Give the backbone structure.
Amino acid sequence: MTPNERQELETLLPWHAAGTLGPVDAARVEAALASDQELARHFAIVREEMAETIHLNEALGSPSPRALDRLLAAIDAGPARPPRAPFGARIARLFAALTPQAVAWSAAIAALVIVLQAGVIATMLTGERAGQRRATFETASAPEVAPLPRVSAPAPAPASRGLVTAAVPTSAANGAASHVLVRFAPDASIADITRFLETNKASVVDGPKPGGLYRLRVNAGGKDELASVVATMQASKIVGFVAPE
Amino acid sequence: MVDEPYRAFGRLPDESRTLNAPEASDEILIGRIAGGDRLAMHALYARHHVKVFRFVLRLVRNEASAQDLISEVFLDVWRQADRFEGRSAVSTWILAIARFKALSSVRRRKEAELDEEQAEAIEDGADTPDIALQKKDTGEVLRRCLAKLSPDHREIIDLVYYHEKSVEEVAEIVAIPENTVKTRMFYARKKLAELLKEAGVERGWP
């Protein structure tokens, strides 16, 4: 190991102690530490500095809950976030960020894809016509699709912290539904929600949907069981709305 | 130097991203926040507010200011979430916003006010280095000397040791080249060793 290499490795010791080096550098430092006692002693000093830095920071305490209250009040009171740039403007910005060479290569690849796609479509059409000439009658079988039940759309997301109850969308008529739609109260904390999910053996599978609704998977095999789960959830203070899906 | 923290962050090496697995869910939260999801904002706040508060407090050295700034930082996260491009870790982006706001706040205050507040705001009542040394508490001496470092040195030591930021991420947050990150960290540690030596602690480095 040259003096320069050793100095470089010595410089990396703080990041090695924090575990933030990439695997290559971490392996180099580990190898050097195994064979260089002086470097290993220096590493012990670094670890001591790190421990006391963590101790010093941990002693600084935490912000008061008022900081979160102020944040939420500002979110409620403030204007909506600036609208996103129009689609065209974003596309223009994307192209502006590319080099001329990148644009040229992208255009060439796009042209090639279009040509290949046209070829595939032409081949498919030709084959289909040939098939029609050979077969006099053909039927297609497909699984019968039941018409979707009409449901009322959930209300748009409320601008205030208050709850808005939407019409109950339900599709549990078949008795085997195992999903429910839930809207949590705005003041529900993460800990509350985690406890609620554990208590009801539920997990979030989708959301938030329009109206702040989350789709939860629940352990309910039948209609009665599902109704029982929904009733239990409705009793929770952190839930503003719940309905079987 | 304070740079605009909302600029598109530069590329991070894949290896440094994979070390921080929870960042993936941070990115999902940011996506939801961009769509106006307050629950996601709660989750992101719960995950990062303590560390961000401590980072800000170490920069502004005034608890009341830090309390105010923490709300401002996360309000900016709420407002700017749709601009986050995902090319750096979410925590790195938040710390960059926090740093920008903290240093702007410091600049607005008079130097004299800062000095007075430094003396009274975050004193922890611990012993002075000499007294601590007499008690053979080298850990306390070390913490005292860490607190005596210049803001630049204190900041980089906190980012590396406490916030566990890689060389690349520190460069993003502080807006300096990666080599400068390494040399600044080296000189911060060297200064710390000098302060320890003055307090009677000889560690044999450098």
Summary: Chain A is about 55% helix and 10% strand. The radius of gyration of chain A is 31 Å.
